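sorry to bug you again but im stuck and you know this stuff better than me. what follows is a protein written twice so to speak, once as letters and once as structure tokens for the fold. mainly i need to know what kind of three dimensional shape the backbone takes. anything you notice is useful, everything is just below:
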Amino acid sequence: MSLLENVNSPKDLKKLNIKQLNQLCAEIRNLLISTVSHNGGHLSSNLGVVELTVALHKVFNSPTDQIVFDVGHQCYTHKILTGRKDEFSTLRTENGISGFTRPDESVHDIFSSGHSSTSISEAVGLANAKKIKGEKGKVIAVIGDGALTGGLAYEALNNCGFDNSNLIVILNDNEMSISKNVGSVAHSLTEIRTSPRYFTFKSKFRSAILHIPKIGNELNRIITAISSKIRRQVYHSTFFEDLGFRYYGVIDGHDIEALIDVLNAAKTHTHSTLIHISTTKGKGYNFAEKNPTQFHGIGQFDINTGEPKHSGQTFSSVFGEWICSSAKNDSRICAVTAAMAQGTGLEEFSNIFPNRFFDVGIAEQHAVTFSSGLAKNSLVPVFAVYSTFLQRSYDQLIHDTAMQNLKIIFAVDRAGFVGEDGESHQGVFDVCYLNSVPGLTVYSPSTFEELQNELYKAVYKDRGAVAVRYPRGSERVLPEDYVYEDCDYQVYGDDSGEIALVSYGRVFCECARASKKINNCFVLKLNKIKPINKDSLKHLNNCRKIYFFEEAIKTGGIGQSFAEALLEEGISCEFVHVAVNDEFVKQASVESQLNKYGLSEQEIINEVLNGEKEKA
């Protein structure tokens, strides 16, 4: 019989024994593989934390005990166990449940998350608030070794202190060992220290010592100091204990009985605890275990073969081809990534030019400043980064790059709508924050050809830092008579028309097709969106109405800069700015998002025709 059918909340786990819990884990894995194969999502990381998540909900009482998942992309089992099992088939679909933790879905989701290295900071804040308010419950931060490469995690560890009695950090080590060398002695010691019998004996022994008249407290202090020295000798690495944590590790993250024992031990502690576990990414699905990177974030795939159902050339792959080709002819060109080599198309570059490839881990701030160092010594670093992650290094972009007038190329992938990953991943903010940086040049190509040409100009023609932003996926259909002109802007159609559609990037393609179905209309295409070439405005002198369509947040966007430029040039006409207006973009397909925000071909047509009806 299926155990999962009868598990509708964390309370249902309390009734299950170890054998049943292992069966439950197997059933959860089957559900994860089946659902992600249809909906896409983060598979490897979720398969790796099934036992851990089950053990957490077996031992603790969520939401009184607050569990904070770093990034949140490994929360699928958590969602299944916290009342969303019946909705799990809607994962990452429009109006369905998110692929990340979301407090508006469940009281068991403490924070909305999608970016890494935040969990310990959040947990320290939660723990301190509980302490001040006198509330019960532990706070547990679950962070992976990859996220521990982010500087914010170390800032939080440094701020934990020695007296956070309700704080537990779980370090999920699934790729590289964090501790120096944990051998058989350390393993045996951990088994002993997490045994319920040992912990009961230790508690009674300490209580008896403390009751010895006059010398009890001093004897307890001496025993504690000796115990600490022994642990340091055995574990070798004292980093976490030096920061005030009681360290347990390394625990087999797929041994549910061992996990329950160590969590129970941590639960009774009166000081901060760090539990170091070892897991296998993709556990239980052969294809994901062999290639965890491919299955980290994947679209639909065939369960039997592990092969993606959709493939073909993308902006990311074209960028990867361009940088490899360029680096062969220019030894100054280097590639930098923040743990996203495959996603940004740099995998081949890393193999061909290992000495010029730098993966700095999940540390976008460091990536930008590191690139500034490369640039200062006459190399040409190309930092390939998702739009949503580049925003984490805004200060470095201003202070360490632009202010220094250094040549760095920012290859901004996933610009605009990204679809099913939802609010935390939409690339709709880069335009406004890049637009605010003095001296920065920004391109937004619409096609693969444009991407390659604008990257070339960024390296060899433009001065200072340059960002080339491009969308996720493949190029969109353009009218057959469209011909790319290698310049800052171009006009598509007859510029004697009274209605102008102005746009850039992916949405230009929608505007170009829409213009074919609107009378007296032409399109002004911005290839370089910062700075705006003022010569482009001369084509708008005879316009009665200008529509600016922008796949970005409206406030601070290019549309606002363009409207200001029109005023400065004395061009007076009706101006309509269609963009994302002061909200976070929820998960849906890219096509649905384009429709919702008035940026698809048909919605552009509707906007203009409805405006003409109102005028009539």
